[in-house]
Amino acid sequence: MMTPDGDTTVGMMVCLDGELGYWNARLTAAFAERLADAEAQDAELRTLGSAAASIEESLRAMQQAWLSFRDASCLYEQAQWMGGTGGGPATLACHLHETARQALKLEGWWAQ
């Protein structure tokens, strides 16, 4: 955003969208890795005859709930701008921050 025209609404959106793409890629990779781990753990538990809840199903439900939370949270952020031009960058920044948090959580960094 420190480039010429970077402080305009469009400039901010371009910058934020680029970083959001980076965090989306990390989130997608982390989710895929957690999913593979969950499937393997569930398979091992089945061979042991465990009645434990499915880790894979829990992961999928958590991610779906997180998507709903992210969308609702960022819609609220947008509403704070009451239709003003700052709503676009604010909403995109919200998506970026929430996506980064979720990526870090799934990568295992959040607990550190």
Structure overview:
The chain has helices at about 10-45, 55-80, 85-105. It is mostly helical and about 110 residues long. It has one domain (about 15-105): Substrate Binding Domain Of Dnak, Chain:A, Domain 2, CATH 1.20.1270. The chain has three helices and no strands.
Write the layout of secondary structure elements.
Layout: H1 9-47, H2 55-79, H3 87-107
Quaternary organisation: single chain
> What is the number of helices?
3
Whole-Å distance between the termini?
A: 30 Å
Low-confidence stretches: none
Order of helices and strands: HHH
Question: What characteristic shape results from the CA principal axes?
Answer: elongated
Class by alpha and beta content? mainly alpha
Query: What is the C-level CATH assignment?
Result: Mainly Alpha
Secondary-structure arrangement, i.e. CATH architecture: Up-down Bundle
